[in-house]
């Protein structure tokens, strides 16, 4: 690997390690996620470990983000992290609904979950957690963001990524079906994931915009199917739209001070 290809592969390795949460990831999992041969993934991980970007638990054979990533992240957070701005909104959503509330950010053609707040209802969906990534159009946050992109960009994404999404997440993500969900989301203003990733685990999401008016983040509520009948789903959607509007305004005011 040379040049930009090397940078791309290293970035993919770091993203996979970063999405491993508290359990870490194995070399095999990194290789599968990045398309690298296992021996290559091992060499890249070992090189990153020498520089402090990843750390390895030798006893369990699992990789974790390293101290250098923490230091870089602390610096970047001064400019880019808006999670602290969203925390009380998440707490309010969880308290009002009893469902788990999450805040996700768009990163290219993916969403990454930045923060979550558990609701009081004892049965929960476990699809979302901090650090997990999904392609746009998968999970409610990614569907909400995809639907609020310029229509031409959303349609181009669905055409180009449809086969990949079907292979990873099933026939319910084939282009024609996904296009219908995008259109329905644009009409409603909020996205609904009716158990498409894990049967029985539902999600509803609304977009939070950046200062330029682009869909950059999403608020979502997740729970079990029995809690998301038609009328209540609409109520949750309306609540999310109100919260997303509030957070959009906060982020705009915060950005003006950067």
TrEMBL record:
<protein>
    <submittedName>
        <fullName>IclR-family regulatory protein</fullName>
    </submittedName>
</protein>
<dbReference type="Pfam" id="PF01614">
    <property type="entry name" value="IclR_C"/>
</dbReference>
<keyword id="KW-0804">Transcription</keyword>
<dbReference type="InterPro" id="IPR014757">
    <property type="entry name" value="Tscrpt_reg_IclR_C"/>
</dbReference>
<dbReference type="GO" id="GO:0045892">
    <property type="term" value="P:negative regulation of DNA-templated transcription"/>
</dbReference>
<feature type="domain" description="HTH iclR-type">
    <location>
        <begin position="4"/>
        <end position="67"/>
    </location>
</feature>
<dbReference type="GO" id="GO:0003677">
    <property type="term" value="F:DNA binding"/>
</dbReference>
<keyword id="KW-0805">Transcription regulation</keyword>
<dbReference type="InterPro" id="IPR050707">
    <property type="entry name" value="HTH_MetabolicPath_Reg"/>
</dbReference>
<dbReference type="InterPro" id="IPR005471">
    <property type="entry name" value="Tscrpt_reg_IclR_N"/>
</dbReference>
<dbReference type="InterPro" id="IPR036388">
    <property type="entry name" value="WH-like_DNA-bd_sf"/>
</dbReference>
<dbReference type="InterPro" id="IPR036390">
    <property type="entry name" value="WH_DNA-bd_sf"/>
</dbReference>
<keyword id="KW-0238">DNA-binding</keyword>
<dbReference type="GO" id="GO:0003700">
    <property type="term" value="F:DNA-binding transcription factor activity"/>
</dbReference>
<dbReference type="InterPro" id="IPR029016">
    <property type="entry name" value="GAF-like_dom_sf"/>
</dbReference>
<dbReference type="Pfam" id="PF09339">
    <property type="entry name" value="HTH_IclR"/>
</dbReference>
<feature type="domain" description="IclR-ED">
    <location>
        <begin position="68"/>
        <end position="253"/>
    </location>
</feature>
């Amino acid at each position: 690997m040379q040049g930009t290809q090397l940078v791309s592969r290293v970035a993919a390795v770091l993203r996979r390690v970063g999405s491993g949460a508290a359990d870490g990831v194995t070399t095999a999992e990194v290789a599968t996620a990045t398309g690298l041969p296992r021996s290559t993934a091992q060499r890249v991980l070992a090189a990153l470990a020498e520089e402090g970007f990843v750390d390895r638990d030798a006893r369990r054979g699992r990789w974790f983000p390293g101290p250098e990533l923490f230091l870089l992240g602390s610096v970047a957070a001064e400019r880019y992290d808006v999670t602290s701005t969203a925390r009380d909104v998440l707490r309010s959503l969880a308290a009002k609904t009893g469902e788990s509330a999450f805040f996700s950010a768009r990163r290219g053609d993916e969403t990454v979950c930045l923060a979550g707040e558990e609701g009081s209802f004892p049965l929960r969906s476990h699809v979302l957690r901090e650090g997990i990534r999904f392609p746009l159009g998968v999970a409610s946050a990614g569907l909400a963001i995809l639907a609020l992109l310029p229509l031409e960009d959303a349609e181009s994404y669905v055409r180009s990524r449809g086969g990949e999404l079907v292979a990873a997440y099933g026939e319910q993500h084939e282009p024609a079906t996904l296009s219908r969900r995008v259109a329905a989301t644009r009409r409603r203003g909020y996205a609904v994931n009716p158990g498409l990733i894990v049967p029985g685990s539902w999600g509803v999401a609304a977009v939070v915009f950046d200062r330029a008016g682009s869909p950059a983040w999403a608020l979502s509520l997740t729970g079990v199917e029995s809690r998301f009948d038609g009328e209540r789903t609409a109520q949750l959607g309306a609540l999310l739209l109100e919260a997303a509007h509030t957070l959009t305004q906060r982020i705009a005011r915060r950005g003006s001070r950067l």
